[in-house]
Amino acid sequence: MSRSSALPRDASTAEAVAARLDKPMGALGVVFVLVVLGQSLAEDPRVVRALTVVGWLLWSVFVAELALRAYLARDQRRFWSRNWWQVVFLAVPFLRFARALTLLRAARVGSVLSAAVRGSRSAGRLLSSRVGWLAVVTVVVVLASSQLLLVLGSYDDYGPALHDAALATVTGAELAADDGFAQVLEVVLAVYSVAVFATLAAALGAYFLQPQQAGREQEPGRG
Length: 223
Description:
It is found in: Membrane. The chain crosses the membrane at residues 52-72, 131-152, 189-209. It is a multi-pass membrane protein. The protein is mainly alpha-helical. It has helices at 2-41, 45-72, 76-91, 101-126, 130-151, 158-171, 180-218. The chain has 2 domains: 1-92, no CATH class; 127-215. Helix 5 packs across helix 6, helix 5 runs antiparallel to helix 7 (180-218) and helix 6 (158-171) crosses helix 7 (180-218). 20% of the residues are buried.
């Protein structure tokens, strides 16, 4: 009797904690995107050091959040099957301690991807509007794409990389760089721009059709 009554209480506690963590963790996820961007662009050693410290603090918070959610989860197997990718992204920063240049570059790429995924999920937690969420995700995609183009050597300066990534994300325009990674990213961003256009068209259509449908429902029946 007491055991069965404890299960709903545990479930309600887990749901309450998860609900309270959503918005603050979502805000930290957006901050994490900006921190990773700053680390890629900063040249002053003091700024780089400060951003690195902030990045590790945010990383520690994300680890603590994942551990807390795992502790409160009733079905551990289901929880880890849904959140295994977070473990991978949380482990990526440790590649920075590797001496090999290829591993160091992989760590920087992983940090950018981790920030992009975290920022996208954060937008979903913070925004209920589909259009607002799509706008934030598009900004995250532009920032992540421009950073990857810079980190992987497709561009030497961040300004042109950001400009071309923004145009490719919004309009599907071609990138100025012609290396292998840039060509693959160009196709991915073109597909994303089509998906964004289709989503916006559907949202606008639903917005204009909703008043008409409401008016039809309020009309008295004939006959």
